[in-house]
């Protein structure tokens, strides 16, 4: 529990930066230096900001949460100081700006518009971003340093077996009920008239942009992609393999800031603008529009799947053969429809790992049962599809054992080894680094005992 709480606190470092900005602007926090780690300082406003965020999220603690916040900041400062001396660890202005833009979009989602955000913090957007830069840079440095410290930590099968045999019964993890399932997916056909309507609308937007309208503004207003709030800008430089093949083919041939003709991809229809190019990677923005599927097309897919499910139940055709012959999903059809859990790269899913629409169906099904057709959204390209699923295996919840749950136990022991290495690193750096903490925090019950010397 303590470790999970620590991770939550670390995970809110960035939000604390902006909350601290607000607190200072509204004279709720009087700044003072609370701690010094090497050449870095920790301000009271940093602690207050993170503490405010923890309270806002309803996080509770059995101890003093401000002391816990301070200790995590102390650890972060140690990591940053080490990273700054490591020539192999770098954080570029581009990386900082990219994360800052993403963070700003998350903040703006909680306000009606930029003016409301500026009013809350009593600062312009540019000044808010300026206040965030150092915090974002330090967070990226500390993350890279953490990764480097534990990058060579591994576990062997013999270590996993030894560790498992020495666990008490209370320490052995309980594996939740897991499911393996296969699926057959059909995508309703989009009418030609609807496709033409979308393409005509995109051609009109291209004409307006060529005439001087802002591409970014048009994307905010009209794009149906997740990048719309960011002016249609994709979050990073991407190579060909990271993009839809049709999208990449056009985007990599764009020159200057020219806008492409209409492009059809697995996601829908686009117009694309090149922002920048770095070697074999490009940064683009786009406007995505998805043709609407008619009720008749949906009913047709549902009926087709219903008929196929009945044939499978009567053993006129196997589920595996049906998946190969009829399924729209390229990731599962050649494997007899078997779905793969991308979190573990195995065929086992806990309820939490399943797509919401699938979990609602599967939880009450028996092994080898075939579901009724249901409507859902393809997670890869966000298109409306219809599915039938078959439960191929159901493993009831149980205490982990080496035969069935080796990977889970290996991951657990690897995490413990990495945590131990991290703790040893922190303890060593404590003894080698100048650290001073204000007397008001001298009585904190820290996990690491050598902060106060």
Structural description of this entry:
- The protein is α+β, with helices and mostly antiparallel strands.
- The chain has three domains: 2-154 and 415-441, Porin chaperone SurA, peptide-binding domain (Triger factor/SurA peptide-binding fold, Orthogonal Bundle), CATH 1.10.4030.10; 178-189 and 294-399, Chitinase A, domain 3, CATH 3.10.50.40; 192-289, Chitinase A, domain 3.
- 47% of the residues lie in helices and 15% in strands.
- The chain has helices at residues 2-11, 13-25, 44-56, 65-84, 93-108, 114-121, 125-150, 157-165, 192-210, 215-222, 245-251, 295-313, 319-326, 356-362, 402-432, and strands at residues 33-37, 40-43, 174-175, 178-186, 263-265, 268-278, 281-289, 349-350, 374-377, 384-395, 398-399, 435-437.
- The strands form four sheets. It has a four-stranded antiparallel sheet with strand order 8-4-10-9. Strands 2-1-12 form a three-stranded antiparallel sheet.
- A hairpin with a 2-residue loop joins strand 1 (33-37) and strand 2 (40-43).
- It starts with a helix and ends in a 16-residue tail after the last strand.
- Residues 1-29 have low confidence and may be disordered.
What keywords describe this structure?
453 residues; alpha+beta; Triger factor/SurA peptide-binding fold; Chitinase A, domain 3; 3 domains; 15 helices; disordered N terminus
């Amino acid at each position: 529990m303590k470790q999970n709480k620590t991770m939550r606190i670390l995970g809110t470092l960035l939000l604390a930066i902006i909350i601290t900005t607000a607190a200072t602007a509204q004279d709720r926090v009087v700044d003072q230096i609370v701690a010094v780690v090497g050449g870095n300082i920790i301000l009271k406003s940093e602690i207050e900001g993170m503490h405010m965020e923890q309270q806002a999220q309803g996080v509770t603690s059995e101890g003093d949460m401000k002391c816990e916040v301070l200790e995590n900041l102390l650890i972060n400062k140690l990591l940053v100081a080490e990273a700054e001396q490591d020539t192999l660890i770098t954080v570029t202005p581009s990386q900082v700006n990219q994360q800052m833009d993403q963070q700003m979009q998350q903040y703006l989602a909680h306000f009606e518009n930029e003016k409301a955000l500026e009013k809350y913090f009593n600062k312009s957007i540019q000044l808010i971003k300026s206040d965030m830069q150092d915090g974002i840079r330090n967070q990226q440095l500390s993350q890279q340093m953490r990764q480097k410290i534990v990058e060579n930590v591994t576990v062997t099968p013999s270590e996993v077996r030894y560790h498992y045999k020495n666990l008490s019964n209370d320490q052995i993890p309980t594996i939740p009920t897991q499911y393996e399932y296969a699926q057959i997916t059909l995508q309703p056909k989009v009418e030609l008239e609807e496709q033409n309507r979308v393409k005509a609308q995109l051609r009109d937007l291209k004409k307006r942009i060529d005439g001087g309208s802002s591409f970014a503004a048009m994307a905010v207003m009209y794009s149906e992609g997740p990048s719309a709030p960011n002016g249609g800008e994709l979050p990073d430089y991407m190579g060909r393999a990271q993009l839809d093949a049709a999208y990449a083919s056009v985007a990599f041939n764009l020159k200057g800031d020219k806008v492409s003709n209409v492009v059809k991809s697995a996601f829908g229809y686009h117009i694309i603008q090149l922002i920048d190019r770095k070697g074999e990677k490009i940064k683009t923005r786009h406007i995505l529009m998805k043709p609407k599927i008619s009720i008749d097309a949906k009913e047709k897919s549902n009926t087709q799947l219903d008929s196929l499910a009945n044939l499978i139940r009567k053993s006129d055709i196997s589920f595996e053969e049906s998946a190969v012959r009829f399924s729209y999903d390229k990731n599962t059809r050649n494997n007899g429809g078997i779905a793969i859990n991308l979190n573990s790269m195995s065929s086992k899913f806990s309820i939490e790992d399943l797509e919401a629409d699938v979990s609602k169906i599967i939880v009450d099904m028996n092994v080898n049962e075939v579901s009724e057709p249901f409507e859902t959204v393809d997670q890869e390209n966000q298109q409306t599809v219809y599915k039938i699923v078959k439960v191929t295996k159901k493993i009831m919840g149980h205490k982990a054992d080496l035969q069935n749950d080796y990977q889970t136990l290996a991951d657990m022991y690897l995490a413990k080894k990495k945590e131990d290495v991290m703790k040893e690193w922190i303890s060593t750096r404590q003894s080698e680094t100048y650290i001073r903490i204000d007397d008001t925090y001298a009585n904190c019950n820290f996990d690491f005992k050598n902060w106060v010397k």
